[in-house]
Design goal:
246 residues; alpha/beta; Rossmann fold; six-stranded mixed beta sheet; 7 helices; 6 strands
Length: 246
């Protein structure tokens, strides 16, 4: 297999620790406003159109609709995810940018088979091809070096100690709803009459590709992704991990 090459975006001149402290006491909408006021076109947000994606999308729609929103379409998403994306985009005023891997789903399987079934090496390569490379490209083409994500501390052990802003290699990442509990997410859905992902009613509590996501189990949410072997795909790992690319 040929090595993948990445062009890494330029280093952001932002004091992550100071900005994190500034965001911490604010409400989520005010965090987005502050970020946009201070950083403007240096910002990009991402969405997976997953189980709880409507929360961040609606917050951006209401408080900072000019921020571009990147959707990484791996080619292996559930049909319901694509349908949900269309439903949300018909309701929200957002600047959506869709990025796909340079290899189609059919080409990946023709050349290398089911990479997600080939142990850590295969799974890591799969993540690089379908998620990390498109995200690097999105950052480069949008010119953004500050990335807004809907990560929450309560979602997994890998996210429990995150600050509101952190340096990830050469990109600053910030998490406006980092401190939201599940109950707050549910209340926001109710108060804003937001549609739910169709698979939420079938027991799914997280959402990714069809081959690596299953409904909730007695082992908890982290067991629903990648057969319980890992929760993160490579985009949101901490800076000490070797597959932390962006």
């Amino acid at each position: 297999m040929e090595a993948l090459k990445f062009e890494i975006p330029t280093l952001a001149g932002v004091d992550a620790e100071a900005l994190s402290a500034e965001l911490a006491p604010l409400r989520a909408g005010d965090r987005l406003k502050l970020l946009y006021d201070q950083l403007g076109d240096r910002l990009v947000a991402t969405t997976s159109f997953g189980i709880q994606a409507a929360v961040m999308l609606n917050l951006i729609h209401e408080h900072a609709p000019k921020i571009p929103v990147v959707f990484i379409d791996t080619g292996f998403l559930f049909p319901e995810t694509y349908q949900y994306a269309e439903e949300l985009m018909s309701k929200l005023n957002l600047d959506l940018r869709i990025y796909q891997p340079t290899y189609t789903a059919a080409r990946i399987q023709a050349l290398w088979g089911n990479l997600w079934e080939q142990g850590k090496e295969g799974a890591d390569r799969y993540g690089l091809i379908t998620k990390v490379e498109p995200m690097n490209r999105a950052l480069r083409e949008t010119g953004a070096d500050v990335w807004i994500s809907g990560l929450r501390r309560s979602q997994s052990k890998t996210r429990a100690d995150r600050p509101f802003v952190e340096q990830q290699k050469r990109t600053i990442k910030t998490y406006p709803i980092l401190d939201w509990a599940d109950a707050q997410v549910d209340l926001y859905y109710h108060q804003n009459n937001l549609p739910r992902h169709p698979l939420a009613a079938k027991g799914y509590v997280t959402m990714g590709d069809w081959h690596s996501t299953k409904p909730q189990s007695e082992d908890g949410a982290e067991a629903t992704r990648f057969g319980g072997e890992k929760y993160e795909c490579g985009l949101h790992l901490d800076s000490g991990t070797p597959d932390f690319q962006i």
